[in-house]
Amino acid sequence: MSFPLLLFFTLGYFLVSETDSFYRELGAIFCITVICISFILLVKSYKLKSILLVFFQWLLALFIAFKLFFYYTFDTKPTASSIFVIFETNATESSEFFKSYFNFSFIVILMLCFSICIYLIIKSLLKEKAFNFLDFSITNRAFQISLIGLILVSGYMLRRSFSEQSIVLKLSESIKDYNIAKDYYKEHLAQSINNDIKITSQTKEEQIGIVIIGEATSRWHMGLYNYNRKTNPLLSKMKEELYVFNDVIAPDVMTILSLEKALTLSNNKNPKAENNFSVVQLANAANYDTYWISNQQPVGFTESTPTIIATAAKQQQFLATDNYFSTIYDESLIPEIEKVITSKGKRKLVFVHLIGTHRTYKKRYPESYNYFKGVNERTKFKTDKSKRLVNEYDNAIRYNDYVISEIINLVKKQHKNSFVVYFSDHGDEVYDTIDFVGHHRHKGSKPMFDIPFIAWFSDKYKLKNSRIDTLTNYSNRKYNAEDFIYSFSDIINVDFIGNDKSRSLFNINFKERKRWIKDSLDYDRWK
Q1: Bond before 360 cis per omega within 30 degrees
Q2: Nearest-angstrom CA–CA distance, 487 and 503
Q3: Contacts of 162 (CB under 8 A, 6+ apart)
Q4: pLDDT beneath 50: ranges in the chain
Q5: What does the alpha-carbon distance between residue 82 and residue 440 come to, in Å, rounded to a whole number?
Q6: Phi, psi of 112, deg, nearest 5
Q7: Can you tell me the distance from the alpha carbon of 356 to that of 395, in angstroms, rounded to the nearest whole number?
């Protein structure tokens, strides 16, 4: 039973960079080990002891493997937010996430973690009575009371001194917080009609609006933002028609934590806004026909926050199926969008949720977009792995360029009062500033926060909204996408009680404010 403790002591010495964290982890594992051993000693039945031995060994191995994975990959312990996100991650994302970060070294670590557990299972299968050393019963009442006391003391120490290192406690706290958050979202964001919305003025003109929400797309790899590769050949051709904003950041590097702010009144300093509502509900209140068309699976292990926001739309469509081994490219959304914008109805707002450039990158584009080869000179860390992943990411960006441009062209062909806005939930680090690929809060780097934000407006829209002409002067505004709901209300010309036009990227009254990330870090002072 002490093997997982010894294994973490050996491997953790090299993987846990902070000495205090290392000893606290050891303390937490020691307490859990003592509790497991004490339980086994208290049981009288040989059979039940054998079952508990294998079960506790498996449980400890799982805890150790989980911890070592985070320290090995992200140089940090598992946090409440990372566990929270797991609840909302679907099976496809989970499998792609672990495949992305698994390598030979960690497979060896994983095998070591579960080696004793596997040995015990094999031994129990080969012998009828494999664990003779368990064939005893403690009848001494004083010793039994001592064991119970040891369990209570270890549990107390675990909660008092090692709660941050205890996955069990973190998991229980995360489940509690998750359920509270989920109830909050369902109460405020799930219904089509939200009585907290008090509209003070609006236009009632015919209009088609498209809001495209990207996935894991960093402007660091976009030719439209001066990347050294031609990853945006189509959007670059129509650049004169676009309003490209150069300094927009995501509120978080995790999809769930980012979109819950970008699509609602919530923000970093006010994560659970009173009388909260979403952009979808605001569009409903303004008498738009609302649609949510997504290429992401609608559920994780439970219903996800973006899905709850999507349920407020009058019509929803999720292209991704339960077949986790299938790949649906984002171009599959285009015919569905066309059906909506060419159907009857004068006021339509379509929210499009792409799979974008989400890892695994090579699954995000067809073979015909396997365009980039060789090593990009701009890649900071040059290895065979970085060469492959940078090329795959850039190919995915180039394919994403095609999808975005096709949607804009589709709307353009309607010759109506219309607009298209595109931004990504967050970016990805792809060996740009650190030796890492993907996104994680602890690893957080600027490419993870720096996102594209692009707007297109039809000629008819511009005629009705002369202020749009001034947007070229706004391209370098420092903006946090957590304020998107205010920009959105500006675009659709809807005003409501509580609206703050100084938070709208498109408004003449815009005021730059501190852009908080990672709870209390000022992005613009972060190096």
Answers
A1: yes
A2: 7
A3: 24, 27, 28, 31
A4: 301-302, 323-325
A5: 9
A6: -65, -40
A7: 11
